[in-house]
């Protein structure tokens, strides 16, 4: 029987850091939503002049040797996964996952087979000209615009490398101190005897045994861990002598909290009854409430402040673009776009019904 409550533990340090980085959602929505693509391709800012003697550069380009392909790691007909592609995939993994995958040949083979199947499917689609479909071209253009928008906006709004200064970090830490408070932690051990509330005979027997064990555990020089290993019916803690480690009071079940609060380190409680049975509790140690030290959270604070600074700069940059000119919205064209989309949506079921 686990004496921990079902209430999930709260990560106070992370919550405090996130609190510092809270911003208006407009920028996030603007940057994360799909860009609306136009029907026409963008006009290049400056067309490159064609050289008068075009044959010479073409011949020089043809004379350049083709870059050597990396050795294939896996092949399926004409498609392959080469060493460089696999290396890039492995580099994207955390070191622990990469080391684990290296020893997992079955998992690696499965990934290679799946990647080969994906590449073969792409080649099959290309052979049928699938990429030339109008809706895919629009999707390609929208994806390209999103990538350009996000990467360019990141480049023009990036916080300076020396931001935040140490003084800014210290000030942010002081503002966040209430959210960085860590509750008192109780190291508790238990002996658990099951007895469902509705079973009067089992409750009476378990209560008698619990009272006896509590007296033995409260005796001078009693070995609580040995008693737990011998008598506790909680499989998750019995092997550790009943020890559940350090937990905040809020994570203990409601029946346990008053008993634990009254104990001093080293003391054993009287039997505590819960819906599942009886618990004999020992407070092994107590860590008083504290505030997370500055050195422990400063890296998270720095990241949060840099993110906040970049979001503010991005919003200002976008607002500057809008304010640089006059925004004009054609109401008639706007209504026509809605009408066109509604007509297209209404026509889709009819098209689907006629499809073979």
From TrEMBL:
GO MF annotations in UniProt: peptidyl-prolyl cis-trans isomerase activity
Stored Pfam families: Rotamase (PF00639)
Keywords for this protein: Isomerase, Rotamase
InterPro entries found in the cross-reference section: PPIase_dom_sf, PPIase_PpiC, PPIase_PpiC_CS, PrsA_foldase
Residue span(s) of domain PpiC: 183-285
PROSITE patterns per the UniProt record, alphabetical: PPIC_PPIASE_1 (PS01096), PPIC_PPIASE_2 (PS50198)
Enzyme Commission identifier(s): 5.2.1.8
Similarity-based family: Belongs to the PpiC/parvulin rotamase family.
Protein name: Chaperone SurA
Gene name for this UniProt entry: surA_2
């Amino acid at each position: 029987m686990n004496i921990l409550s079902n209430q999930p533990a709260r990560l106070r340090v992370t919550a405090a850091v996130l609190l510092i980085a809270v911003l208006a959602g407009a920028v996030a929505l603007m940057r994360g939503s799909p860009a609306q693509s136009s029907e026409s391709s963008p006009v290049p800012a400056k067309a490159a002049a064609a050289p008068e003697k075009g044959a010479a550069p073409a011949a020089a380009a043809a004379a350049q040797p083709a870059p050597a392909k990396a050795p294939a790691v896996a092949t399926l007909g004409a498609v392959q996964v080469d060493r460089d592609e696999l290396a890039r995939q492995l580099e994207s993994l955390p070191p622990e996952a990469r080391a684990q995958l290296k020893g997992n040949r079955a998992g690696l083979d499965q990934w290679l087979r799946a990647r080969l199947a994906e590449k073969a499917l792409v080649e099959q689609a290309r052979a049928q000209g699938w990429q030339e479909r109008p809706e895919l071209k629009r999707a390609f253009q929208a994806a390209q615009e999103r990538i350009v928008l996000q990467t360019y906006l990141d480049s023009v709004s990036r916080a300076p490398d020396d931001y935040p200064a140490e003084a800014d970090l210290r000030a942010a830490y002081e503002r966040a101190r209430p959210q960085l408070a860590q509750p008192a932690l109780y190291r508790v051990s238990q002996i658990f005897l099951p007895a469902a509330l509705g079973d009067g005979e089992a409750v009476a027997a378990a209560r008698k045994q619990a009272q006896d064990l509590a007296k033995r555990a409260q005796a001078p020089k009693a070995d609580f861990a040995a008693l737990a290993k011998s008598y506790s019916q909680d499989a998750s803690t019995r092997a550790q002598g009943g020890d559940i480690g350090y937990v905040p009071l809020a994570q203990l079940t409601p029946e346990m909290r008053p008993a634990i609060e009254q104990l001093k380190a080293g003391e054993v409680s009287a039997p505590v009854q819960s819906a599942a049975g009886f618990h004999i509790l020992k407070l092994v140690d107590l860590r008083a409430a504290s505030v997370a030290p500055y050195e422990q959270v400063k890296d998270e604070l720095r990241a949060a402040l840099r993110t906040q600074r970049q979001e503010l700069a991005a919003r200002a940059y976008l607002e500057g673009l809008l304010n640089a000119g006059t925004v004009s919205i054609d109401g008639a064209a706007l209504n026509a776009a809605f009408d066109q989309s509604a007509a297209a949506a209404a026509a889709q079921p009819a098209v689907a019904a006629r499809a073979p």
